[in-house]
Amino acid sequence: MVEAWPRASRFEQRCFELLRRAYVDARYSPHYRITVEELAWLGERVAVLQQLVKSACEARLDVLRAEA
């Protein structure tokens, strides 16, 4: 997961925290704020996560097909 959600810099840590809090805070807290830059970075990371999940699923399906 670190590949999809790096947290080496303060910006990356803040974005990850914004994402973690977004599920509840974005709906219920008038104080939740996210910048265009943060949202764009998170969108890029979601694309990386999608690719990682796709690759992992395809690899697992290949193993299952080989066993069948």
Short descriptors:
0% strand; mainly alpha; 68 residues; 75% helix
Description of the molecule:
The structure is a single chain. This protein has 68 residues and is mainly α. The model has no long low-confidence stretch (mean pLDDT 94). It has one domain. Helix content is 75%, strand content 0%. The radius of gyration is 16 Å and the shape is elongated.
Layout of strands and helices, then pairs:
Elements: H1 10-28, H2 36-67
Helix pairs in contact: 1-2
Radius of gyration: 16 Å
The SSE string, one letter per element, is HH
Mean of pLDDT: 94
Q: First CA to last CA: what distance?
A: 30 Å
Give the low-pLDDT segments: none
**Overall structural domain count:** 1
Q: Classify the secondary structure makeup into a structural class.
A: mainly alpha
Report the major sheet.
none
Strand proportion, as a percent range, falls in under 5%
How is this structure best summarized?
75% of the residues lie in helices and 0% in strands.
